[in-house]
Amino acid sequence: MADIVAGIATSHVPAIGVAIDQGRTGETYWQPLFAGFEASRQWMADLKPDVAIVVYNDHATAFSMDVIPTFALGCAAEYKPADEGWGARPVPVVQGHPELAWHIAQSVILDEFDLTIVNRMEVDHGLTVPLSLLFGQPEAWPCPVIPLAVNVVQYPPPTGNRCLALGRAIRRAVQSFDRDLKVVIFGTGGMSHQLQGQRAGLINQDFDTRFLDLIVSDPAAAAAIPHVDYLREAGSEGIELVMWLVMRGALSPTVRQVHRHYHVPASNTAVGHLILESQ
Ligand code: DHB
Ligand code: FE
Questions:
Q1: Helix axis angle, 160-175 relative to 98-110, nearest 10°?
Q2: In this structure, which CATH number among 3.10.129.10, 2.60.260.20, 3.40.830.10, 3.40.50.450 belongs to the domain 3-266?
């Protein structure tokens, strides 16, 4: 049987990718941020997952105002890193896992979650920065990746509750896949940040700390946070945090927190990171 053994939450700030790609992680500005991911890379190297599901948001790279899928599951064999304006990141092409991805699509759609299926897509910093943080700079990514893109860019994004429920459906889907696979799931984005308008630069450590606590021990309470509270408390881009709820729903009801890291700032963002193991 396949199983989702662990979840990783992490911010996906594009400047983190630039710092890694340009060999600047030891600089005074960046060192405290990256220090909080060293143990995580070792943990991941020891775990050796067979597949990673990465819940992330596309930032108007693969999608645009033309087509806005709420939940888009990647069923392709590979995904090229996108050129977001400065050339594609120098990271490996992401290999997919079409067999498991199609199984998840069938299982969750018949479970009444109407996903969009994507067979061609380039992936932006939302997906590649978390891979770099957890896998480092290998010649090839150490496992296949199934992208799940969530719309948090154009209102209305899905509710936290819907994200948690989708995570639970993904758990049922993976556990009904008839092959021994050790699967991990990433929830990316957040924490508090606002990139535009009068409150650009907003950071709210109290909200972020409460959210980290709730994700670990009371995900239903985190799922009940309404959109307007994310906007008020965590800034206009804080809504990315609903994606952490998909990750959390895909784990066992109680989890073991293996690692927690919080650092302000990276670019305009409060960086939060958790590693949670299913029980
Ligand atoms: C930043 C953060 C993000 O999550 C993002 O998608 C783009 C930029 C930032 O802090 O610069
Ligand atoms: Fe983002």
A1: 120
A2: 3.40.830.10
